[in-house]
Amino acid sequence: MDTATIEDIARQMDRDHRLAQKLWAEGLRETRLLAIRLEEPKKTQADQLDRWVHQLTHEELTTYLVDHLLTKSPAARHLVPRWAASHHPLVRNAGFRLLNRLGLDDDELDPKARFPGYFTLSGLQSDGADAPTNAIVRTWRAIVRYMGRRNRRTGQQAVRRAQEAQLLWEQDKIQLNREYTNRTNMK
Asked: Is residue 18 part of a domain?
């Protein structure tokens, strides 16, 4: 079922926290997309949002969750730093997407979660996190574009972080290519 159909179904229904919980528990793409649309952002608790983010299975669901629920839920703002530093790529991507959507200057966002001072990619790598995926690098680029328009000094710091992310991502691709070549040559 396409998202337009899910949107139509959601428009015909009222928001319902309990129903959203049941739909999410079904675990299907369609039921989870509908759960996101029917959930009441002000009723969500941090533990529920954290559980949902950690149960993400693909990029489409990540984007939909961020755009339609996390940006509207006050409880999500305090989880941004933890998600962005996660070892799980989709969780980390949700953190960066949410940070980008909050506009980086949201008054309710914890000051420690602001991009230039908090997210040091070398720190993530030293903690054993995987190199950023292409989707995360794209999100960083979006953040850099936004920040460069808002504040030149802050934008310059973000550019350095984005360049670091690009290097890590390219190193990861090189390593994966080497491993693939080695496996292929062994056959």
From this structure: no
pTM tops 0.70, yes or no: no
Residue 31's H or E segment, with its range, is helix 29-38
CB atoms within 10 A of CB 121: 22
Percent residues over pLDDT 70 in the chain: 61
Q: What is the pLDDT of residues 39-56, one digit of tens each?
A: 999 999 999 999 999 999
C-alpha dihedral sign at 176, 177, 180, 186: negative
Is 60 exceeded by the pLDDT of residue 67? yes
Q: Is residue 98 part of a domain?
A: yes
- Tell me the residue range of the domain where 134 lies: 40-186
